[in-house]
Amino acid sequence: MEVIPAIDLIDGKCVRLVQGDYDRKTTFSDDPVGMAAHWVEEGASRIHVVDLDGAKDGKRGNATVVAAIARSVGVPIQVGGGIRTAADADELLGLGVDRVIFGTAAVERPDDVAATVSKHGGQHVIAGIDARNGIVATRGWQEDSGRKASDLIAEMIGYGVVRVIYTDIARDGMMRGPNVNGITDILSNTEISLIAAGGIAQLDDLLAVAGTGAEAAVTGTAIYTGAIDLKAAIRKLQENI
Q: Sign (positive/negative) of CA torsion 84, 166, 131, 121?
């Protein structure tokens, strides 16, 4: 299983939120490009980048930083936050981003998701399934869509999406462990590749996620606080293949 470090951006800085709450923010670095390079040095084979300003406002306020990360790191990056249209996705993929993540647009503009899959291929598109009590949240997790996560995943599969990133909002940033049951339920009922996010606090959590059959896990707070040693975790997951 791949372990993917997260670079979450607000005002050009690398931050972490608690349960997606913009008022509960910790800034870890003023140099997100350097931070991405650091995680690559620690062994990361991919970087997960989220423009949190874009996620909330629908305008990619950290576009310059995202482009700089895409140019500078020598590994693929996947990007979410503020990607509302097929044109947004085209721009990012044209910059060398490997995968674009449609979150709010998966709910509000599914035709744009389908258009991007048709143009670029399903391997370059991720549906962001950000759920609170099984219901998908949108616009930086500030709004309740009323859509069941399972229903949205089924719809996205119908549009040709082959990969989702599933985040349990209640666990995100809380360091209380991932929603293993939720991950298992999705993988048991759908034919899709899944990246897990939210709540990963220790190496055992990564091993538990790997046991579900998830292809990858995103980790943020745990590697920034030192609760997880990224290099050691990657080595351990490789040993368990």
A: positive
- Count: domains in the chain: 1
Q: Which of 51, 53, 130, 205 is catalytic?
A: 130
- pLDDT the model gives residue 166: 94
Q: pLDDT of 195-205, one tens digit each? A: 999 889 999 99
Amino acid, res. 200: I
Global pTM value: 0.92
Domain holding 120, by residue range, is 2-239
Task: Provide the pLDDT for residue 241.
Answer: 59
Interval 134-161 mean pLDDT: 84
CATH number of the domain within which 34 lies: 3.20.20.70
pLDDT in tens, 53-90: 887 777 787 999 999 999 999 999 999 998 999 999 99
**More confident: 239 or 70:** 70
Catalytic residue at 90?
Answer: no
Catalytic, 172? Answer: no
What is the DSSP annotation of the chain? -EEEEEEEEETTEEEEEETTEEEEEEEEES-HHHHHHHHHHTT-S-EEEEEHHHHHHSS-TTHHHHHHHHHH-SS-EEEESS--SHHHHHHHHHTT-SEEEESHHHHH-HHHHHHHHHHH-GGGEEEEEEEETTEEEETTTTEEEEEEHHHHHHHHHHTT--EEEEEEGGGTTT-S---HHHHHHHHHH---EEEEES---SHHHHHHHHHHT-SEEEE-HHHHHTSS-HHHHHHHHHHT-
